[in-house]
Amino acid sequence: MLAVGIIGGAGYTGAELLRLLAMHDQVDVKIITSREYAGIAVGQVHGHLAGYYQQTFVHPEENLFKNLDLVFFATPHGVSMNLVPALLEQNVRVIDLSADYRLRDSELWKKWYGGVHTSEHLLNKAVYGLPELNRDELLDARLVACPGCYPTAVQLGFAPLLTEGLIDFSNLIASAASGTSGAGRKASLSNNFSEIGENFKSYGVSGHRHLPEIEQELSKIAGQDVKVTFVPHLVPMVRGIQATLFASLKRNAINLQSIFDQFYQSEKFIEILPRGVYPQTRNVRGSNIVQISIERPDDGDTVVVMVVEDNLVKGASGQAIQCMNIIYGFPEDAGLDILGLNP
Ligand SMILES: NC(=O)c1ccc[n+]([C@@H]2O[C@H](COP(=O)([O-])OP(=O)(O)OC[C@H]3O[C@@H](n4cnc5c(N)ncnc54)[C@H](OP(=O)(O)O)[C@@H]3O)[C@@H](O)[C@H]2O)c1
Question: What's 2-125's CATH class?
Fold first, then answer.
């Protein structure tokens, strides 16, 4: 059995790791941390997990983790970068759900996240954990930087078009909407039900922290600089992201449907919908599945790609477990063979 720890177990992605790992028969969750709830039973904080986890939360003391095989960080940015170097030295693998190791350039980190990166020497060693686009690199990864929730949807939607060189790289547009769990469990005025209910709004239009990550990874796929206009929105639902992507086609006589079908033909978690069938977030709620639909309005030269995912599963904890499965040679869908919850 793989001995794992979760730092940040009281939050939303921590809870989702615990829910999914409860269905994984090769993993034993040994340590679950929370500073606020240290000493309190996990099931008291996450009622839906009460029957599966008998442990209490513990304070994240550094020497707790040295006998583990793997530690997941489900913490805000700025936490893992201080603890990861010691864990790697102790031969503990790390899968980080936060942004600490996603950007390759420490100056970019400084610009978008503020402050100095305390372990920037590891930025180029971390493997970006998007299995469908990066599976080979994950095979012997010791430190995985899991993608953000928006970047997962945007990359999976644009990847076939970029790989085939079918679109103008200089002007991609991603308009995306997320449910409120994307902001985490910590209370704030802007997360308050009265502020979010019966409301739909954009935010971070002048620049969102996920933009440099999206451009970095799309540029890697394209082999040249890719520029994106990214407009995130908040939608009054708990889970789910829909990204609607727009790009200008360079060629006309192409069968986009078959290009996407082929690109993802061996991917269990990616479903390309038949033409004219559009994805909905409720189709993938609670599952690691991403649904994608492609349109070309009026057969013109704009391609529209619609992508849905559950931000807490394929956008975070499910993807982290998928990475773990690849690293340890478990079936890639272990703990993740779940359909969406609809209605
Ligand atoms: N929510 C999503 O949809 C989503 C998707 C993709 C990626 N992510 C990323 O995943 C990470 C976790 O997100 P979340 O939504 O689960 O956040 P969350 O609900 O706010 O939970 C964060 C957890 O981190 C712990 N924590 C905070 N500061 C800490 C510190 N200094 N040391 C140790 N533990 C600390 C908190 O518990 P205590 O304060 O009790 O220790 C809490 O359990 C973030 O980096 C987020 O950007 C989130």
Answer: alpha beta
Class of domain 150-310: alpha beta
For residue 2, what are the contacts with CB-CB under 8 A and spacing of at least 6?
A: 26, 27, 28, 69, 70, 324, 328
| Sign, Cα dihedral of 186, 189, 194, 198 | negative
pLDDT tens by residue, 224-274: 999 999 999 999 999 999 999 999 999 887 899 999 999 999 999 999 999
Quote the DSSP letter at residue 323. Answer: H
Is the pLDDT at 14 greater than 80? The verdict is yes
Answer whether 94's CB lies under 8 Å from 73's CB.
Answer: yes
Q: What is the DSSP string of 186-213?
A: S--GGGSHHHHTT--EE--TT--THHHH
Q: Alpha helix locations (H) across the chain?
A: 12-21, 42-45, 80-89, 106-113, 131-138, 149-163, 193-196, 210-222, 256-263, 318-328
Q: Which residues line ligand 1 (CB under 6 A)?
A: 7-8, 10-14, 34-37, 60, 74-77, 79, 97-99, 148-149, 181-182, 184-186, 311-312, 315-316
Q: In the prediction, which pLDDT does 190 show?
A: 87
Question: Does the predicted TM-score (pTM) go above 0.85?
Answer: yes
2-125 shares its CATH topology with 150-310: no
Cα dihedral 64, 66, 67, 72 sign: positive
By the 8 A CB rule, do 9 and 57 touch?
Answer: yes
Nearest partner of 162 among 236, 259, 65, judged by Cα: 259
